[in-house]
Amino acid sequence: MSNGDIAWVLVSSALVLIMLPGLAFFYSGLVRGKNALATLMHSFIALAIVGLVWVLWGYSLAFGPSVGGIIGSLEWFGLQGVSATEAGPYADNIPHQAFMIFQAMFAIITPALIAGAFAERIRFRTFVAFLILWSTLVYAPVAHWIWGGGWLGEWGATDFAGGAVVHLTSGVAALAAALMFGKRLGLGKDPMEPHNVSHVVLGASLLWFGWFGFNAGSALAADGTAVNAFVVTHISASVAAVTWLSIDWALKGKPSVVGAATGAIAGLATITPAAGFVGPMPAILVGLLAGACCYFTILLIKNKIKLDDSLDVFAVHGVGGMIGLICVAALGGIGFTSLADIAGDLSRGEFLVRQLGAIAVVAIWTFSMTIGILLVLKVSIGLRVTDKNEGIGLDLSEHGEKA
User: Fold this and answer.
1) Across residues 141-147, what is the average pLDDT?
2) DSSP 17
3) Is 71 helix (H, G, I), strand (E, B) or coil?
4) d(CA 276, CA 345)
5) Which of 84, 97, 149, 304 is most open to solvent, judged by the fewest CB atoms within 10 Å of its CB?
6) Cα–Cα distance for residue pair 165/214, rounded to 1 Å
7) What three-state secondary structure class fits 206?
8) Pair 150, 69: CB distance under 8 Å
9) In Å, how far are 78, 140, 152, 223 from 74, measured between CA atoms?
């Protein structure tokens, strides 16, 4: 094993962890002041709850010995047999526990991303139950299918750092959640502007910083793939931020600070599945696509479909993840590595079919399971706070505190 690789993976794990407070500030800045603390809590509590789920059974279900390519067995329940000193089956250069804790951070942030869809109206107890059920029934199987030796990965679908496993699942789940929760009270009538744009920028900056661990850390080594992933991650975020800002400026007459921050996040999400497979010039195209496509998806959802995905999770993460997965097939091997190294004997067209198939399967599974989980929660403990408590705000009604 390599001490340098071990150090890089552990540092990358910490970088991904700091994305959780980044997400907390980003989301809490976007909501109204009376819901800021509750929104912060969604990201913070995910660190504890999903982290525990991952140690007990989540990691074993996602990465344990495969049961028919569908799910991992519970052989590694409670991290039994997951060594801190010996390598595991996924990387021979780092201890098994280093791989486990790196993957834990992905499992934690994914359901936290979904919280943006039902911000300002979910009961806290419902969110806690949702974290446990969703990470077990949606995240773990999808992670196994693609990264854990499951059937989608064996079929040829490829996702470098989470375009399908993290962003597509969270985005599609957000779409399902927005449908199930319905609109916030007073939407379209009451002012609902972000209460703290400084927090939005702070959160976006922490996310951008942490994303270098998210993508470059997925190389699982301090090598050229990590270097390339680091560079193209920054390029895509930069281009997407400028693209979003430019469109906003052209359509609204003023350059939006929130728009620039949101554009950067779109660029980061979109490059994620392709970060280890494309060079700098393709990364510019990825950033352009991210900024433009995610921007206009928000307009479509808000103005035409009129769905209240409160913080635009589907448009940024769902659409970004889809675009990135397609770019793996369309642009993979250009400027870095080669198509053969990524797709084996598959032609670019055949590889594209695999990526589109993975998008369809993951989206259908995520949407149907999320609807099912929320239906169970709705009839058992309820989804939304009362109208009175929504008017008061979740900070006081759910937590008895003010941000």
Assistant:
1) 98
2) H
3) strand
4) 19
5) 304
6) 13
7) helix
8) yes
9) 9, 12, 20, 33
